[in-house]
UniProtKB/TrEMBL annotation:
InterPro entries: DUF397. It comes from the Bacteria. This is DUF397 domain-containing protein. Residues 11-62 form the DUF397 domain.
Amino acid sequence: MSEATDLSPSTWRKSSYSGGNGGECVEVDDANPGTVRDSKDPDGPRLTFTTHTWQAFLTGIKAGAFPTT
């Protein structure tokens, strides 16, 4: 069994691209890299990814691998 991640010192941040889209945002926890939540449900579930997976995702975003339109 794996231990749960300690999320107590969380510092949540929305993307600068999230303004004006009706609240459909994912927030990233700066204190726990790879941990995200739905900004509309801050007390809801959180997803935590390994460092390798999170870095691969960020690299894909920067490369345009996930177009929004």
